[in-house]
Amino acid sequence: xxxxxxDDIETIxxxxxxxxxxxxxxxxxxxxxAYKRAAEPKELLLVKGAGHVDLYDRVNLIPFxxxxxxxxxxxx
Length: 76
Hints:
The protein is of the alpha+beta class. The protein has helices at residues 28-37, 54-57, 64-74, and strands spanning 17-22, 42-47. It has one domain (16-74).
């Protein structure tokens, strides 16, 4: 069975979407594709020097400030 999770991404609109990926992540293209398909409000953040798994536990690379501002702005 083939399933591409972003085929119907517009169905979750207009919920805010924040895509965070490392600029060196092998999976970056999936975040970029999902971002292109998603409706507003949306934002894509590329973390410089981060690979795919770096944003799991390398706390110095995790953009906590962006998470706080995005969710503060959009979840009221």
